[in-house]
Amino acid sequence: MSSPQPPQTPPAPEAGGPAPFEYGQAAQAAAAAPKKTLGKKLISGLGILVVIIVIAVVKFAVRDAMTDKPVHAKVGQCVSVTGSDNDPKVDTVGCDDSKATHTVEKVIDNTFDTHACGDEFDALAQQLGSDKFVLCLTPKK
Q1: How many whole angstroms separate alpha carbon 137 and alpha carbon 108?
Q2: What pTM, to 2 d.p., does this model score?
């Protein structure tokens, strides 16, 4: 039986040449690198999803607060109608207010059919979310 030989040390790299590849060192470096577990990946993914949802909610809330919303006036209320025929702005005002231009005579829900008011009224189709309706108006004198 022969006696075991002592481990050999690799030769020193030559000046200017590449260092020799040592499998043991590469394996140690890979083992020392931190590993993300499935749980950590899942938690970070959920965190990113929550941030995206919060940003979307804030964006839509600010947009809705900043845009002009149609007025779902009631029969007998007075409104101020300004703007063009293609983009009317309607605001509910007191009937004694000098800005009042029309009185609401009928409200027809679930339609955009302005002909439903007949010829005796001015008609204004509006939509507030999924709620669509037509205001049948008479001009204030």
Answers
A1: 11
A2: 0.50
